[in-house]
Amino acid sequence: MGVLLNLNPKNRSMLDAVDGGEPDRDITNSVVIDHSTGIRVLLAPPSPETAEMITANGVKVILEALRKTHDLVVVDCTSYFNDTTLAVLDASDVILTMLSLEITSIKNMRLFLEVAEQLGYEKGKVRLILNRADSALGIRVADVEHSIGRKVDETIVSDGRSVVYALNRGVPFFLSNREAQVSQDILRLARSVVGERAAPAADDDSRKTTQKKSLFAWR
């Protein structure tokens, strides 16, 4: 994530919140980096060996601290299960799962949904996002839905040129090319997740009682 946002690899990370093997609630927010886009970023530990110092319980402590001070928390997890990933999934309000029009991706998604069901996650907690949905690869969206046994919730078009160019510059493509269809798809997805609708503005009392929301992404 730090590379994608053009952050200095020497910046602070989750590792700096660790004290005696467990994160300190009081200093978690002090190691979050303010990015030029307006978001705040908490980087993963800089190396695999240091990542082992962050336990599943430590992740829970960090997330609890961030949820108290942020309206929205997005976690970019690994694509495999471990204790840390499961801790994030258990604590999440929404899980965004990415798949594509490829047999291996469809198979992995089917397995993930089976695990999610065994873990007791409600269907509404898991949302399926079809990436590169307009790719002509011989598999239709209907085929994917039939294979995994449920509908795709959101789709994102393929736009390798915009995406790769933005990644190489370390600038989110939503900012560098907001009018592109891929950017509009991401915007639609974000609005769907936070429940944004074209509705009359809420009164002051309603706004005061609106609870903060958290989003945890699994990919």
What does this structure look like?
There is one protein chain. With 219 residues, this protein is α/β, with parallel strands linked by helices. It has 3 domains: 1-80, no CATH class; 93-155, no CATH class; 159-196, no CATH class. Helices cover 41% and strands 11% of the residues. The chain has 10 helices and 8 strands. The protein has helices at residues 25-28, 48-51, 56-69, 83-91, 103-118, 141-148, 160-169, 173-176, 181-194, 204-209, and strands at residues 18-19, 22-23, 33-34, 40-41, 95-99, 126-131, 154-156, 216-217. The strands form 3 sheets. Strands 7-6-5-8 form a 4-stranded parallel β-sheet, sandwiched between helices. The chain has a two-stranded antiparallel ribbon with strand order 1-2. Strand 6, helix 6 (141-148) and strand 7 form a beta-alpha-beta unit. Helix 3 (56-69) packs parallel to helix 4 (83-91). The radius of gyration is 19 Å and the shape is globular.
Structure keywords:
219 residues, alpha/beta, 3 domains, four-stranded parallel β-sheet, 10 helices, 8 strands, 11% strand
What order do the helices and strands come in, and which of them pair?
Blueprint: E1 18-19, E2 22-23, H1 25-28, E3 33-34, E4 40-41, H2 48-51, H3 56-69, H4 83-91, E5 95-99, H5 103-118, E6 126-131, H6 141-148, E7 154-156, H7 160-169, H8 173-176, H9 181-194, H10 204-209, E8 216-217
Parallel strand pairs: 5-6, 5-8, 6-7
Antiparallel strand pairs: 1-2, 3-4
